[in-house]
Amino acid sequence: MQDFFDAFQQAFALIASGDPELIGIVLLSLRVSLTALILACIIGFPIGALLAVSNFPGRRAIILFFNAAMGLPPVVVGLTLYLLFSQAGPLAVLELLYTPTAMIIAQIVLITPIIISLTRGTIAGLLAEHGETLRAMRATRPQMVMTLLREAHPALLTTAVVGLGRAFAEVGAVMIVGGNINHVTRVMTTSIALETSRGELAMALALGIILLIIALFTNAAVYALAPRSRELAHV
């Protein structure tokens, strides 16, 4: 029990002192996850909105695909990307394996279906309320998409926060394609797994505390934005 309390004391000491290794891991985690989120939103928001306002053959199948992809197993995504980026893979020339870029791509693959599916649901709800008005104004499909995306921005912020939480929690895919290399691709989740296996509980706990704080702030943001999103849905 004493060792347990000592590990907690050392963990808080690492945080309070701004341990360089700890800060480096946290900053890399933030860079990877935030970059992946931004790119996933750039891809996912317009696709989700187009799926909501369009009607074409195969649309339902695409929607079902993205809904199913929300539950993609991270290790399967990591393995697939590993095979693509490895020396024997078709994308070996890019030399992305064991780099932060490969980790960002893995997180984009995992986050984008979430962004698309949640955006589609939000825009579909707004379209049911305002579609007739937009059609009466003879708005083109791109104009409808842009208008509805602007109207939906509180709910889209919630969607982005959900995606960010998913990115920060990821460990399997980023460990496979990143390799968990010290000072290169070691992020919070992979570091916690490594340090725990080595018995270095102080560093693992310090990273866990920081990750928990980020998760709490993320969930608090979702909770704060949710009432506005519900209000928007009933406008």
UniProtKB/TrEMBL annotation:
The record's keywords, sorted A to Z, are: Membrane, Transmembrane, Transmembrane helix, Transport
An example Gene Ontology CC term for this record? plasma membrane
User: Which cellular compartments is it found in?
Assistant: Cell membrane
A GO BP annotation: transmembrane transport
For this protein, the parts annotated as crossing the membrane are 22-51, 63-84, 104-128, 155-181, 201-226
* Sequence similarity: Belongs to the binding-protein-dependent transport system permease family.
Under PANTHER family, the record lists: PERMEASE COMPONENT OF TUNGSTATE ABC TRANSPORTER
What is the protein name stated in its UniProt record?
Answer: Tungstate transport system permease protein
